[in-house]
Automatic annotation (TrEMBL):
The lineage of its organism: Archaea, Methanobacteriati, Methanobacteriota, Methanomada group, Methanobacteria. This is Phosphoesterase DHHA1. It comes from the Archaea. InterPro entries: DHH_CID, DHH_sf, DHHA1_dom, RecJ_exonuclease, SSDNA_exonuclease_RecJ. Residues 366-463 form the DHHA1 domain. GO terms for molecular function: nucleic acid binding. Pfam families: DHH_CID (PF21763), DHHA1 (PF02272). SUPFAM superfamilies: DHH phosphoesterases (SSF64182). Residues 194-269 form the DHH-CID domain.
Amino acid sequence: MVESQENPMNKALSKAHEMVEKAEDIKIYSHIDCDGITAGSLLSLMLDRLGKEHEIEFISLDKIDDLKTTNELTIFSDLGSGQNLDKFCTSSSKVLVLDHHPPLREMNHYKKCEFLEINPHFYNMDGSYEISGGGMTYLLAKTFGFYDLSWMGVLSAVGDMQNSLTGKLQGLNQDILTDSVQNNFVESINDLSIYGRQTRPLFVALSYFGDVNLPITNNKTECILMLNKLGIPTKNGRKNRSLCDLSVEEKSTLFSELVRMLSREVPPKYVRYIPKLICGDSYEFLNEKKYSPLRDASEFSTAVNACSRHEHPEIAMRVLKGDRALALDDMDDLAREHKRYLAQKMDWVREEERIIPMNNIQYFNGSEIKSNVIGTIAGMILSYGDWKKPIIGFTEIGDGKDGLKVSLRCSRLLAYNGVHFGNLIRKVAEKVGGTGGGHSVACGAYIPEGSTEAFLNIFDESLNGMI
């Protein structure tokens, strides 16, 4: 069981422990993103070990209204708190919600049924950066003594971008990381914040640096020339070197050069943020092979997301639950397909010069881009636009639903300077009859058809004097 001093959710977690112990027929509904897939997989592993019959289904938020509860216990993971669950409160069903998103209800809202909702917001914790959905499910698994699943809580937090602003895990995420480190599942390394530590050649990884447009951004030749000038070899024999191959001295040299380059490109008010733009904590899963896409938490989360985006969460779940044979090959295939799709859509946006500037923002119409990758494209295309302005992409929701999906991405420097775009996009979306929210640097909204112009104008005006 959970030790009494660990966190204020102990009593609720103990009750959840009892609900699981007593149930013989369990259904899990989990969100279909990296955090949700990892959270659901963790629960499934836990129930496997407990010998509990269970089914799992990964769903998008708009599918909740179509669900029916026929099982003895229904568990919602990484979703449920922000949705109306009135219809699930019946005398015949028991419901457990493990979520970290802002809740619609007060704690213990449902009194006529066995309904338990555990959410960090009930205990004065912020679910946007202190704990993820996978972290919540790990806390339950921990009550059964399954400390070895702590690495999945770390993966969930990284996949949910909970370290994106500070460069490190905080709150209960830090406690989960401590469990992982103490049990030799994860190593926390303060390193350069460059994606692709294990799998990308260093000169390629550097070329994707996109928070600020530098001479090396999207220019692999310039990256090679810079590394040569710094005396940092790009190869070990015939093999390209990755960031993880660099010595401490080489990383220090590269850090100093990036600081110098960035200091020349950013306005004075941003200079003090440069070090944390370049450095942060990286997390390595020690049971995964070096140079594997599963070794680094950021790269692993990308692989899980690729499965989500192409509607094959079951492949990611098989890998997360330990299948390193066929499922890993399938995951690699999906990752390659995902990269091809992103490259095609990137070219489509750039070749048509679809990025349209406004006073404080820039946007593009992603009408030919799937709604579940519009945010990814926005983040990638930011390096081709004006980094001093957030970029907004919009496209049709699809799946027979009316309305538009809107995604925003921005340089971390804008968020460091105090703008929380997740809060702003929620307020603007509500003004045009939509909904929205998210993180400071990555957020989104759903807005009605025909409201794009009003949404963009209100958003642009809202930023006057802020950036």
